[in-house]
Amino acid sequence: MANHTITFTLADSATTAVQVPTGTLVAEAARQAGVEIGQPCGGQGRCGRCIVQVTEGAVRRRSTLRLANEDLEQGFALACQTVIEGDVAAFIPPQEKIERRLTTDRVAAEVSVPPTYDYSYTQTVRRVHLNLKPPSTDDQTDDWGRLETSLRTQLGINAASISLGLMQKMSTIVREGKWRVTAVLAVDRGEQEPGPARIVMLQPGHVDEYSPLWGIAVDIGTTTVTLWLVDLVSGQVRAQVAEYNGQIARGEDVISRIVFTGKAGGGDEMRALVLGTINGLLDTACKRVKASPQEVVKATIAGNSTMIHLLLGIPAGNIRLSPFVTVVNQPPLLTGAEAGLAIAPDAIVDCLPGVASYVGADITAGVLSSGLNTAEEVTLFLDVGTNGETVLGNRDWLVTCACSAGPAFEGAGVIHGMRATAGAIEEVWINSGTCEPVIRVIGGGKPKGICGSGLISLLAEMLLTGILDKGGNIPKDAASERVREGEHGPEYVVAWGAETETGQDIVISHVDVDNLMRAKAAIYAGFTLLAEQVDFKLEDVHKILIGGSFGKYINVEKAVQIGLLPDVPWERFEFLGNTSVRGAYHALLDWRERENIKQIADRMTYIELSADNTFYDAFMSAMFLPHTDLSRFPSVSAALSKSSSS
Ligand code: FES
Question: Does pLDDT of 538 surpass 70?
Answer without folding.
Answer: yes
